[in-house]
Amino acid sequence: MNKKPTSKYSQHVGDMAQRKLKAQRHVNKTVWFGLGMMGLIGWSVVVPTLMGAALGVWLDDLYPGGRSWTLALLVAGLCLGCFSAWHWVEKEDKDIHQNEDGDDVE
């Protein structure tokens, strides 16, 4: 099938219309996905932080001394949780961009 050559402007308008239609198809999925991702990120930071603090309190009670295990393990848990959240965001971002690239082919 022969296609007529199109101007840059009409190609640009066509691309914009295609992106708009694609965004309208995925709007509900995106909103719920975003809310779920916020919850996942929040819990992936909170859980290791609280576990580190709880372990630190237990160690402070078991081995009293000049060092605070609670503070050290709280910070370690926070760092671990932030790394975990960063990993999830990077993974999902990569998946989203791969899906966008795959959706362009029709």
TrEMBL record:
The chain crosses the membrane at residues 30-59, 71-89. Keywords: Membrane, Transmembrane, Transmembrane helix. Pfam families: ATPase_gene1. This is F0F1-ATPase subunit, putative. It comes from Oleispira antarctica RB-8. NCBIfam families: ATPase_gene1 (TIGR02230). InterPro entries: ATPase_gene1 (IPR011744), ATPase_put (IPR032820).
